Amino acid sequence: MSDMKNELKIQALFKGLADSEIEKVIPFVSLVRFQKDDHVFKEDEPCKGIYMIKSGKVEISKSTPDGWRQPLVILNTGHFMGEIALLEKTNHASNARTVEPSELFLIPKEYFEEMERKEPFIILKIIKNIAIIAGLNVRRMNEKFIKVLVNY
What pTM value is reported for the model? Predict the structure, then answer.
């Protein structure tokens, strides 16, 4: 149990959570293993939950209208994915595929919803972490977009 607690403590999703709060989250988290090139999820698939990378790397990509895969980012240990579809209660808007054998923590959608009811203060902290990371990602994308425009 303490091994999992220590592994979850390094996850960006749980930044700022006390040990006692992480212990309350542990029963809602499972470990899933993927081989290289496995799809964690695909565009337009129903959301299964939020994934956190314990080890390995995951490429997030979008499919172009003509069927090509456009890589967006490579995520590694500590990063999470699937949060937007989970919070919006929609299907995934992107693809997530492992680029090497990977172990991911999963909080299934049903468990996340149960945590919303049972542990609202912990969920508030988790959602704040999601908002902070989303804000950083938007700033990074804006900077890249401006660089492309300036160099054009």
Answer: 0.89
